[in-house]
Specification:
ABC_transporter-like_CS; 11 strands; ATP binding; ATP-binding; 4-stranded antiparallel sheet; binds adenosine-5'-triphosphate; 275 residues; transport; Rossmann fold
Amino acid sequence: MLINSNAKAIELPLQATVASNEKFIVKGLNHRYSVKKDKRIDVLDNIDFTVKEKEFLAIVGPSGCGKSTLLNIMSGLLKPTGGEILLEGEALSSTTKRIGYISQTDTSMPWRTAISNVELGMEIKGVSKKKRREIALKLMQDAVLAGFEKSFPYELSGGMKKRVDIIKVLAIDPEIIFMDEPFGALDVFTREMLQNYILSLWEKTKKTIIFITHDLTEAITLAGRVIILTNRPATVKSEYKIDLPRPRSSFDIRYDKKFIELHKRIWEDLKSEVR
Ligand SMILES: Nc1ncnc2c1ncn2[C@@H]1O[C@H](COP(=O)(O)OP(=O)(O)OP(=O)(O)O)[C@@H](O)[C@H]1O
């Protein structure tokens, strides 16, 4: 169902409420970059939305509209020029270990093996050698990476490297995971496989996930709610509940009648923003 939009409401059933707790409140967020002495770029314009605990939220918008800027502000990496972010009611003023961040670029250290890359965050946290090996082995097994523990990043495929990046974050067990176009650089088959991996991960852990993408199909496949941003300076254009059954398969869900209907309706809304 379409919510919070000037567009006509559409008749799609409401999704069952995932959780009543509000994890994030984004209030009147503005951001302006100063690039030169006299040049400024307005990127975010009065952004308001909330994110519930255990929610899988996708944020979709045209290229360059300010999606990464928004996520960087929500993770405490960047201070906004206006507005605020509340994390469980408390103003967020710096980065927090409660949030794990997965980006498009590979973050593995080339001189470390896959397993020692997975262990890196736990090492920094001071987890004992025995414990971190135990956790890393289990995570690698679950991510179908058993047998590649001693491989170096250059010996892994793009999809495998991405799975190492994901479980590196899971190893430190953050409550919230931010993903900024994590599969943007991958081929379509690897992308679909990883979407399935993320779907099962969310089913298992029910972590709060915010997933940034410019791919509407990916957003509808994964999320329980999709927020559409306008062109820069980005504002929230609309929100859609994604009332598709779970567990989902990224390979099959896109042929579901309801998926096609949702895609069509959301695309009607998004296409005017895509130049
Ligand atoms: N550090 C910065 N200084 C100045 N301008 C910036 C900076 N970071 C981003 N921008 C500009 O802000 C705008 C929004 O960038 P941002 O990366 O947030 O968009 P995006 O929606 O994530 O883009 P894409 O989908 O292409 O990754 C762009 O015009 C970009 O050039």
